[in-house]
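Narrative of activities, Objective 1.

The group set out to show that a structural description can be obtained from nothing but a protein's sequence at a throughput compatible with the screening campaign. Below is one input-output pair from the validation batch, recorded exactly as produced.
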Amino acid sequence: MAFPLSVTQTVSTSASPAAVWRAFERVDLWPTAIPALAAAKLKPRGPLAAGSRILTRATPSSGSADIEYKVVAAEPPRRLVLTIDDPDYRSRFEYRIAAEAGATDVVVTATLEAVGLMQTVRFLLWQTRLMPILGTTARERTQALVHLAERLGGGA
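Output recorded for this entry:
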């Protein structure tokens, strides 16, 4: 396996690309769709834009960590790129949204890269465990946001 680790998942929905984008923008509603989140907020307030940050707080029972996402690219309603810069790893989530024959496909490509020699060794040893976790995380988060889009209204 090569580094960084990378996985691509596709989730389809009857919601329009505009509705999916609204779900991405409604960061304050993410905790209603993603059970591991207690809170989420966009800084600064306003539309998703390159340079914005999304601050998430995990629920105590989830075993997850609080995360700060950086918005690298926001091209409504087609593409969103988020990154995480942690002392031990870097990750990137690219969401591509496209209308496909009466449906909308949301394609997420998630990458995970170790920072430093010790983390690289750990990633090498754990790569068979990390790949399924990366794929599951990408799919579950995307499905949750697609369900939020469907709740918010599937229309254009």
